[in-house]
Amino acid sequence: MPNSLRLTAALACLSVALVMSPPAMADIALNNTVSGEPLNLDDAPPEGKDSAAFKEFMQSGKNPYVGKQDCFAKGEELFNGACSGCHGHLAEGKIGPGLNDDYWTYPQNATDKGMFETIFGGASGQMGPMYNSVNVQEMLLAMAWVRHLYIGDPEKAEWLEADARKTLKKYDNTPAPKPGADAPQECKMGG
Ligand code: HEC
């Protein structure tokens, strides 16, 4: 094939590929819980940003770890390391407010997007941005544990679909199960 023809063929393939590829879904917009200013993800170290879970969250605004039994123990470990000193081991509240009931200072914390915004960007007083303690993927894991600790009104569990609210069980102090052999890598303990 002459070179010019080859180029034409290549360009034709390329344009077909460009037309056929679905438009990239835009990432959700994240804003500071208190000021409403846009959050800058570049403030956080790169770890976890390439994870499937974080990418999914940035597209859907939903935390894929919520309800994932295999990831509870890891979420608990992260929560106990970075949050429980202020919020209490059961998220019952200490110097920071309780996170296990259905009262929120900032109502958007009843959504995954809202709680991520608070953890990433902080709120007021002692609640500073947490990205130097936990990476963005670890934030999602810790959030899933916080949701698991919930003892509030199931109907107010806004982060769940209406169906899932109906079957939601309040936290009953059952220890988090050990991650199974097929748990996602990031949920394996000590790794
Ligand atoms: C140094 C103490 C401290 C640490 C560590 C801390 N928090 Fe907080 N947190 C607070 C305080 C104080 C507030 C109340 C801030 C406000 O009202 O503006 C708060 C508020 C919050 C809220 C909003 C609650 C509401 O009612 O709207 C959430 C959600 C939250 N924290 C989650 C976390 C998570 C998850 C972690 C760990 C990754 C964490 N915090 C770590 C002190 C802390």
TrEMBL record:
Protein name (Swiss-Prot/TrEMBL): Cytochrome c-L
Pfam families recorded: Cytochrome_CBB3
SUPFAM superfamilies: Cytochrome c
Domain of life (superkingdom): Bacteria
Compartment(s): Periplasm
Gene Ontology biological process terms, A to Z: methanol metabolic process
Keywords noted in UniProt: Electron transport, Heme, Iron, Metal-binding, Methanol utilization, Periplasm, Signal, Transport
GO molecular function: electron transfer activity; heme binding; iron ion binding
PTM comment, free text: Binds 1 heme c group covalently per subunit.
Range of residues in the leader sequence: 1-26
Residues holding heme c: C83, C86, H87
Region ranges (Disordered): 170-191
Biological role stated in the UniProt entry: Electron acceptor for MDH. Acts in methanol oxidation.
CC terms in the record's Gene Ontology section: periplasmic space
All residue ranges annotated as the Cytochrome c domain in the record: 70-150
NCBIfam families xref list: cytochrome_MoxG
